[in-house]
Design a protein that fits this description.
Layout lengths: L6 H28 L3 H22 L7 E2 L5 E2 L27
Antiparallel strand pairs: 1-2
């Protein structure tokens, strides 16, 4: 049995479709007006890349010049040890731990 849609359903579907088509140009015009200028986007992107490169370059001076030992090993010492200003060696004592008697 063929399916026949009532005329009111066809009219309402046509009206909804017409409204959808009418709103498309308005939506695209608003999207285009809100889009930032490509030159501004390029400038912002360039600034972010340069900032990241600057931060990368700042990490490089953390190391001394490489030393080649007589056996062929290469040593690259840190300028600032990762523990901060802690010094190791004889005569240097660790700070007391909470709860321990000195």
């Amino acid at each position: 049995m063929p399916s026949v849609t009532p005329p009111t359903l066809r009219r309402s579907a046509a009206a909804i479709f017409a409204l959808m088509l009418a709103t498309v140009p308005v939506a695209t015009a608003q999207a285009q007006s809100n889009a930032p200028d490509p030159d501004v986007l390029l400038e912002e992107g360039t600034k972010k890349i340069l900032r990241a490169f600057e931060l990368f370059i700042m990490t490089i001076p953390q190391y001394e010049m490489p030393e080649v030992l007589p056996n062929g090993d290469i040593i690259i010492r840190r300028k600032n040890p990762p523990g901060g200003d802690r010094k190791e060696g004889p005569g240097v004592t660790e700070p007391p731990v909470a709860g321990e008697k000195t």
